[in-house]
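Researcher: Predict the fold of COX assembly mitochondrial protein.
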Amino acid sequence: MHPLLHTADNIACEDLMVALDECHAKGFLWKSMGMCNDAKEALNQCLRAERAKRVGANRTGAENKNAKIRAMWKEIDENS
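Model: Structure tokens for COX assembly mitochondrial protein follow.
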């Protein structure tokens, strides 16, 4: 598996990553016959869900930060 996938952000998908690695270790013919497709699809769905969680958290944090900045500028404009 790509080293960047093995991070704290994707710890929930660790078992699926291991399963895909094990499937790929069975050999070229196993992979080429599509025997690892289910494991790969499950991993893709898990990674997509984890990314959606991070995006939601980042968006909420950014909105809160922007609201705080707007409030500060509003206070500065009112006091000027």
